[in-house]
């Protein structure tokens, strides 16, 4: 055996030994992240979380077939959005009162960290499978918005954004405070200040004849994921009440609505939120929204006193009557 061959064999053996010794150490650094625990052993979801984003609710038609943006595409979209908003601030639309620039909004400046092209992830095309009759009811209500309060948005009326609508991003107040006590998880929604108490025991749901805006909720843990099932809704809500919902704003709910949410803390600053909506009276099949919630410990939630000084309902209806008078004079 030549000296050169011997040297190569020794180096090869040393490399193998290094790999054998270091491989376990490398694997230790790659172990799956685990959330801390509350005193009673629950995965800790507590904190202040936000989900403001410019990612659209449904996938735009020009992105058909594209589930995710590249880094370059995401940066370009964020730049275009910033430029459009700056242009809107410089040239406000005539007749717009109370929102003359973006200082009053907090709808985010970035796409979701996942770079998904829509909040809707199932069906795969990123579009909500709405029945035509549900869209017709939405359009009927919008056309009569100034006729009576019963046609107006449940948000404008300060009632409730419902479940899961309260988790969908809006133009502002996109914060959620999660608290945990033995046997319960509590979510405080900044928008319309709903406080949702989720029991984690095995108590049965309330009687089927009792129907509520927020439904009747039960939670359970599946490994480190909080699974929340909600039923017992009435048929007076909307699935989405913000303009950020696009064509889904105003789509009604029925008493067959059934919602399953999943909250999984995937790292120190992120909860992965997923919700599947089933309502055979409104949709042709179940559909799913998914998005990260981002921890923001410095965020401050202030009271959303919706009805204190809220003139929206009165003013909208008064404006409708004024339009009717003007029209009658012209006849």
Characterization of the model:
With 331 residues, the chain is of the alpha+beta class. It is 23% helix and 20% strand. Strands 1, 2, 3, 4, 5, 6, 7, 8, 9 and 10 form a 10-stranded antiparallel beta sheet that branches. A hairpin with a 2-residue loop joins strand 8 (258-267) and strand 9 (270-278).
Indicate the topology.
Layout lengths: L2 H26 L18 E4 L20 H20 L29 E3 L9 H12 L31 E7 L2 E6 L5 E5 L16 E7 L2 E7 L26 E10 L2 E9 L8 E9 L16 H19 L1
Antiparallel strand pairs: 1-3, 1-10, 2-10, 3-4, 4-5, 6-7, 7-8, 8-9, 9-10
**Largest sheet, if any?**
10 strands, antiparallel
Number of domains: 1
- Low-pLDDT residue spans: 1-30
Calculate the terminal CA-CA distance, rounded to whole Å: 112 Å
Mean pLDDT: 88
Q: Please indicate the percent range of residues in DSSP E strands (runs of 2 or more).
A: 15-25%
* E-strand count: 10
Instruction: Count helical runs.
Output: 4
Give the helices and strands as they follow along the chain: HEHEHEEEEEEEEH
Rg, nearest Å? 25 Å
Q: How much helix is in the residues?
A: 10-25%
Class by alpha and beta content? alpha+beta
General form: globular
Index terms:
single chain; 331 residues; alpha+beta; ten-stranded antiparallel sheet; 4 helices; disordered N terminus
Question: Short description, anyone?
Answer:
With 331 residues, the protein is an alpha+beta fold. The chain has 4 helices and 10 strands; from the N terminus they run αβαβαββββββββα.
């Amino acid at each position: 055996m030549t000296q050169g061959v011997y040297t190569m064999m020794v180096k090869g053996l040393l490399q193998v030994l290094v790999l054998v010794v270091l491989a376990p150490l490398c694997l230790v650094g790659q172990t799956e992240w685990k959330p801390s625990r509350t005193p009673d052993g629950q995965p800790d979801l507590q904190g202040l979380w936000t989900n403001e984003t410019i990612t659209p609710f449904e996938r735009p038609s020009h992105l058909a077939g594209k589930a995710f943006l590249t880094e370059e595409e995401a940066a370009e979209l964020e730049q275009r959005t910033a430029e459009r908003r700056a242009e809107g601030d410089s040239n406000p639309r005539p007749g717009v009162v109370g929102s003359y620039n973006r200082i009053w909004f907090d709808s985010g400046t970035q796409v979701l960290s996942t770079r998904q092209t829509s909040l809707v992830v199932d069906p795969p095309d990123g579009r909500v499978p709405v029945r035509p009759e549900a869209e017709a009811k939405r359009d009927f209500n919008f056309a009569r918005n100034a006729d009576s309060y019963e046609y107006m948005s449940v948000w404008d009326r300060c009632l409730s954004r419902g479940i899961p609508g309260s988790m969908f991003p809006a133009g502002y107040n996109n914060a959620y405070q999660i608290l945990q006590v033995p046997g319960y998880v509590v979510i405080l929604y900044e928008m319309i200040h709903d406080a949702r108490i989720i029991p984690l025991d095995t108590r049965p749901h309330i009687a089927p004849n009792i129907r509520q805006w927020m439904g009747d909720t039960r939670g359970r843990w599946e490994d480190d994921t909080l699974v929340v099932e909600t039923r017992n809704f009435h048929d007076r809500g909307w699935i989405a009440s913000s303009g950020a919902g696009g064509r889904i704003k105003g789509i009604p709910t029925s008493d067959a609505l059934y919602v399953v949410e999943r909250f999984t803390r995937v790292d120190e600053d992120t909860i992965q939120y997923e919700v599947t909506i089933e309502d055979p009276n409104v949709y042709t099949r179940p559909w799913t929204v998914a998005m990260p919630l981002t921890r923001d410990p410095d965020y401050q939630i202030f009271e959303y006193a919706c009805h204190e000084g809220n003139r929206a309902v009165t003013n909208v209806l008064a404006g409708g009557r004024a339009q009717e008078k003007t029209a009658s004079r012209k006849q």
